[in-house]
């Protein structure tokens, strides 16, 4: 390991670590970044949607060189039951703008690109190296890291923990507590390859740059708190499903069986026809929201990205919050360095305040009550999607019965599904209040 | 170092994981089970069903065993069993383990 003393060590080369390292490297700080993968990205998993805004604030011209799949022109939201789906679509030509807002990406390739920008900004990157623990001085301040490489510890003024949702360094060094099974989702995903024209035709896309994303609620999670997704890449489709780990542990449903059922759903199967599956992945997603955020700073260390639970589960946003937190951490450390101030917990208030003032904490605060609500109101994943599909089906089917009788039947179905009207009203009220 | 897929019991799982790239650290498994005197916990047994890579199975003695060659390093087992103390979980040495092509 390098013998020199660094301004900062960044643990991990995902979106948050890369954002932090890039920001500091660009400003001339002496930064060491350590990743355990063979190449940066080889240990990283995401759906994946890239939200341009967060990256644009770090690398304004990223579109010129980044490996982007398709920009999203249409979002479909499906409520799934065993044989049906009912949903809404939003498609708009305004998404075909000069600088599109959302892209599908393949994370292993995107992260490799991001890492190249980081190294070009002057950051020293060491791969194939796992950080095993933090080194502290006699008063408990973090002063460096130990790795599984020979050569002893490597020292820095501050350690940025960008180690992801299942990061062990922070936990084993006693900086953050263990994640709870009800605060984290397990997602499994497959990447299915198809010719580019086939993707285009199947999803009604104008060209190789337009893309569709489908988010799915209902029978896809088999009664557990979870969702499914299907994203179009240039020559492939990413399809996955994720549910709370606590629910998987209780229901003992194999995640890959859930995925197989989703793939074979009559609404999904034709979209995947003839595709060749080339990768199967699994990853955890922090879903505990605001109340699951750990202590974010201490003497000589701070946390960014998934390790800080910065995921907005309602809006499926994570990598953008990761990049934003990484950038804010980088900017805060640059400011401290410029003022000649050490990275003590007190001085790192700069980072905590910047986060509070950003979309990261503002949005997580807004949806603070959602994780608890979903856990206690599983009817939102079971009863309502099933009911919606039954109702739509009855409404559309022409079978000689008069419309008034049909409407009465639909309303009766809604009432009996939840016992009485009061429960239905309460469900809506609870959801509205948690959302607000 | 060799590219290798795991020896999971389910043929369908084998087919699925065959698509993945691994750098197996021979002889240095990164997940180990410490069986407790009172028998395997419900949490540990649940892993037979919910490990996404099918790494867990029951052996002839009725004990849960783990073969982590196909592990995708998600951490589900670690989180489910954190309270029981039955799992010793660390990341593979740098450069080893799963290598995502698309992620």
From TrEMBL, chain A:
It comes from the Bacteria. The keyword Endoplasmic reticulum does not apply. Residues 371-436 form the FixC-like C-terminal domain. Keywords: FAD, Flavoprotein, Oxidoreductase. Gene3D superfamilies: FAD/NAD(P)-binding domain. One of its GO terms (molecular function) is oxidoreductase activity. Its cofactor is FAD. Residues 209-283 form the ETF-QO/FixC ubiquinone-binding domain. Belongs to the ETF-QO/FixC family. Could be required for the formation of a functional nitrogenase Fe protein. Probably accepts electrons from FixA/FixB and reduces a quinone. This is Protein FixC. It comes from Rhodovulum visakhapatnamense. The lineage of its organism: Bacteria, Pseudomonadati, Pseudomonadota, Alphaproteobacteria, Rhodobacterales.
From TrEMBL, chain B:
Keywords: Electron transport, Iron, Iron-sulfur, Metal-binding, Nitrogen fixation, Transport. The keyword Iron-sulfur applies. GO terms for molecular function: iron ion binding; iron-sulfur cluster binding. InterPro entries: 4Fe4S_Fe-S-bd, ETF-QO/FixX_C, Fd_FixX. Residues 62-92 form the 4Fe-4S ferredoxin-type domain. The keyword Iron-sulfur applies. Signal peptide: none annotated. Gene3D superfamilies: 3.30.70.20. Pfam families: Fer4_ETF_QO. Could be a 3Fe-4S cluster-containing protein. To ferredoxins from P.putida and C.tartarivorum, ferredoxin I from A.vinelandii, ferredoxin II from D.desulfuricans. This is Ferredoxin-like protein.
